[in-house]
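INTERNAL AUDIT FORM
Audit reference: QA-55
Scope: verify that the stored structure record matches its stored sequence.
Auditor: D.O.
Record contents follow.
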Amino acid sequence: MPTPFGSTGDYRRLAYAELEIFADYNSFNIHDETLDFDPSDDFTDLLIDNLIAAEAGGIGIGTAHRMTVPVIFEARTTEPTHDPEAWDHIAEASLHVDSGTLVIATFNITEKSPRIQLPPGDYRLRAYYTGFDTISPDGIDGLDRYYLIAWPAPPAPPAVLKRYPHPLPGG
């Protein structure tokens, strides 16, 4: 699955991975491998409402269906540009990396959970969501895709840049 962002612009890629992530409970998390990530009930409510939530250095990404979903993760040296019309939903949040290794998984992290090497520091992660109109009524099947792009940036509150205007099926 190629990245939807061209190679134009002045940036250097810090990390890149094409992944298949099991989105148990319509979500997955991204955080430093050494973080004992145990989010609050408020985190879960925000994740349901905004399809993104951040807490204690980790980020939750909400998904449109609760099976394995394709995810591209890319880290760059600068903020990406994009055409908002090309996406169903766009949201972003801050992430802190201590160890130099991110893990992307549900709450059940195993040795097989994807890990990405990324220089320690603070990052902004923007999540681009597409394919929401392909989700089956029961929320099991769909062709939704997720593009996650991170770049070095100071911490800031989560933000929804473009909100999907319809309820997601199967929720």
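Auditor finding: record pair retrieved intact. The domain at 13-162 is CATH 2.60.34.30 (Substrate Binding Domain Of DNAk; Chain A, domain 1).
Action required: none
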